[in-house]
Target: Elongator complex protein 1
Amino acid sequence: MRSLALQAIGHSTLLEEPDRSRITAACYDVDEDSIYFAVETVNADADLEVTIWKKSALGSKERRSEPELVTTLTTSCLSPDASVGEIISLRFIMESRTLVLITRSGDITSIPIDNLPIEADVVGSVDLGFLAAAWSPDDSLLVLITGDGKLMLMTSTFDVLSEAPLHTSDFGEDAPINVGWGSKQTQFHGSLGKAAAQAPAAPVSSTGSSPDDDSIPRISWRGDGAFFAVSALSPRAEQGLRRRVFRVYDRQAALQSTSEPVAGLEHPLAWRPSGNLIASTQRFGFEGGGSGREGRHDLVFFERNGLRHGEFGIREAHLKPSGDSSSSLHRWGYKVKELSWSSDSNVLAIWIEAEEADLVQLWSTGNYHWYLKQEIHPSKGSKRFTSIAWHPEKALHLTLTTTSKLEQRIFAWDTYASAAAPPFDSGSVAVIDGTSVLLTPFRMQNVPPPMASCHLSLVNNDLPALMGQRTPVHVAFSAEKDVLAALWSFGRVQLWDLRTRLAVGRGKIMDPVLLWEGDVRRGSDRSEARQIAVWTEDDRVHIAMLSTEYESAEGDVVSIADVGHGKLEGQRDIHMPDRNGWLISSPDKVVVWQSAEGQIFAVDGQDIVHPTSGFPDLCFNSCTVTVSKSGTDSRVYIGLADSGKLYVAESGAHCRTLCSNVNSFVVTAEFVIFTTTSHEARFVPCEGILDPEETANWETRRVERGSRIVTAVPSAMTLVLQMPRGNLETISPRPLVMKVIEEDVEGGRYRKAFLAARKHRIDLSTLVNRDETAFIGNIGLFVEQVEDVDYMNLFLASLGTSSLDTQVVAKLCDLIRAELEARDLKTYISSILTSYVVKTPPEHEPALQLLLRLRDSEPDLVEDAVKYIIFLVDTDKLLDTALGMYDFSIFLMIAQHAQKDPREYLPFLRELRSYEKFYQRFKIDDHLKRYEKALTNLSLAGSEKFDEAMEYVEMHRLHELALALWKDTDRYASVLETYGDWLFERREFRQAALAFLEADKKQKALVAYEKALEWQELFDLAVSSELPDNEIMDMGWRISEGLTSKKRFAEAATVLLDYVKDVRQAVIALVEGNLFSEARRIIALRKFPELLTEIVHPAILESRSQVGEDIGEMKEQLRKQLQRIRELRLRKIEEPDAFYGVEDTTLHNVDVMTDVSMAPTAFTRYTVAPSTASRTTKRSSRSKRKMERKVGSGKKGTVDEEEYLLNSLTKLVNRFTATQAEAGRLVPHLFQFGPDHRREGLSLQENIVNFETELKEAIEEIWKKSLDGTDADAPAEDGWAARMERLEKDRMINPIDKVPRPNISSTDWRVTMLETGKV
Model:
């Protein structure tokens, strides 16, 4: 669906007297992006003078306006015909920076460009001259055909590799093998019948060549340089005709294949660079020519094995001259002179020599059809081309020479698509095919090319102004409606009203009407029109035509005119600051022009050109879009460069890159849509296109490989893509669909939004999400528009499965149900049932109750409704709901329609019918596992069911409900006792005791309090219950043991003193808890001094010994861990690779690893697991948790060992703080006892003080961050892998940043009197 547009032109007149001299050859210097061309002049001595000139190529950074003389040489002239060029090959060899010139006279001349002065050197000559020459694409081989019919293969240094006769009877190395089948006699010939199969083949002697054949051999290389083809006329024979044959050779000049005999095959030959086709031409309708009507002329294709592979007609009717053909130079009035492929194999140039003037046609193919895209005529003052050459690297750069001029043209692919905004967006796309424009409105039809909805013929044979220049150079659509403007290079414009039908119905999709035709160009006729833009306003059409002067240094000219009522009005010209720019389509009817360097200029209302923005490079495919920014509209320019970068530039602001791998894009009112070389389509909202942070919000969709955008039709929610092979695919991307749905919802067009969401499988809750409040307020309008019952059911079902809040869904269902019931309950019964069951949780019971209400009055309706609700809800759930309603009739109705086996449910129903009311309901609720409701009904079944109820309570743990049910009854105490027993079994002794007290079960309460160690409540209850003293004393012994086991020593001592009356045991309990002060107080109060020496003194020494051992353990741990941390940090500095486990960078390019265990790597050091390169394991959840415990466990040699040590030291500080506090309570007592105790106290105090000092120093050393940059002077690594390793090390977090520094408390715990006594 793409057409070729003329991006830039450059004409240079080199010879003022073309009769004496003529340009005959040209070639490219890719390195310097320049062109060398040769001028031939025959002097008075009949020798040939060749002048070599150099000129900058069109589009190069260096612009040399005037050609530069390189050198001049003289050689012999073989041909007396001045119209035939003597030079048959001019080639620039990039490796040696040498021009090689080959002439028909047989000279091979080498011209070193970089050697000054530049001098030509004849490196070889052949007496009989050369007929043809061709270099391989890599400039390493040269093929020559000599005048005596020999084929020579030479190297770039002109060493002969092969020399053999051109004509041979051998087929070649790829000769086919006849196995007896596949011949003409065994093939099916359709309607021609058996006679066609048995008809003898035409003899080879009757196969001749075309009268237009110039008898000169042709050579053409394949793009990869592996093969070349040679086309030549066969030698004259005594009988028969001469015929054209081409042969295929490999790089060693070994013959591979020979073409089959083709009648009327002509001299042009061009091998497609991609290698699949060899192109030539064939004539029909004459003796020795092809079998067909006279005048038929085809461009034919062959495979490498010489067999035919398709053809297409050259459309000779458009090339025949007007008037009497008998006076024509050629039999048919024209002939094909040469064929040439572009370097990317997409465009085929056909050089035609016609009666009036030469013509070059550019053809491209898609979907097995060949399109005529452009026609190139010699500029004014010239009639014939002398050479044609494509740029070897820039695919669409073409250079042509006439006898006196050098013409350069740059083409670009463009899609001519309508940019009309909704609701008038027809999605029309125009494709140029010669004199016809193929039109398809994709809003209404998707017609696969080469077909189209409308074939618009632009050329009328009665118009002599278009004779000879029939193919338009550019077409454009109006942005307001489908008005098409067609432009020819000489300034002729046609305006067509396409009258596209946008509604579904009968009639023509398009009915074009010509609005106006005429010339827009004014002033010089030495300019060429390249582009047209068109706008419509009411009944007027505004035209902007871009043209470029041939040889003038002035800038482009934009001709603006208005067409109204069939007349051209208000024509004026605006001069641009540079040449070869391009108009940017603008929806706001402003002329915007982009220079060849990417600068953007706008034309204001006074026709003043002023710069507004710019791209870094020329963006041929570009457009403008208006976006809202800070409450004001801003014009934004979007352009796609040849490099694949998509730029966005704001007026007066900088330009930024949206994406760097784009191959096509299109702009709608809401989105910028582009496809990438990674086979994705991305949708950028226009409102956020200026915000770099919005990239993450772009929606993306995968597309087929190589897809390109043709057009987007927002009204139809479609995006049209074209595949590489030419077929079309129409998709409905979610962003376009969602935008239309949102607009319809906001406009209250709920039915249209609903149908769009349904068609494109969009969640129907989208209709609510856009504006929940507005939707709730328009429930009536929604129901009115979406009146179909099935649609309403679908919408309600979608609500139930949506992500909406359950309360919102319930509210919407209730509102819709109320609206439906008010409109027609009977019609919408299924929708009403749906509104019940889609809620969360579903309301099955109200739905069944509705059926019960209608059962008697509308039995048929209820029957259908039951079938529908069975379809919606699981049958078993419905049966359970019906059974839970205690109505067997609805249960039976559902069971019957659900086709349940009666043997499954009838026995159960009979059993239920045998019970009285509440017990029946108890059985039903128990069956449905509604245990609380079952217990309620069982409590109403009578007192005789109480024991069964208690068993049911214990079975299902319904004690709280039982207490509520039997409160204020004579059974309440029994329920309380049962509840207390259940709590006691669950070891909730305190709660059980309270339940027993409430039930007046004091003995059980005492046991529960004792189990709970609630000794205050226990002895209060025991004393108030007047238990014997011995039982209270036994109870005290048991309680004290329990308290002691729970380390509640003070409480145990209180119980022993108050209720057991045992002072000794109380003191022992206090000493066990290190409560020495309280123990001494009890001894003094109860006057038992002997217990001080007997119990307290030994115990306090034992406690001192334990504290000393703890300090020793902590000191040993501190020293070991401090030493290990020092070792790790030293190793981290000296051997960082070994410490972090950095992998060997030399192994990064190794593709295959063995299956043996490898040395630890950066990965294995973190996982503490061996690694095998080819082994994959799948861990279970348990093994993963185990692995997580290993990581950070502090195993020696792991990366996290230092972090583990720091955490361990933090715990050590906390332990020391607790030990220090314990020593603070112990030391005062040691001071007050005897000398031995005082010495122990002093020793303990010194040990703790010394360890505290050592611990503080260690903490200060460990948590002190180094201020030195250990890697500051390290040399910069070279290579990608080394840099990545460096970044990985930099990301390593220092363990001291992970573990906070612990603080040692500075409380005053020491006894200074001990230190004074020491002094």
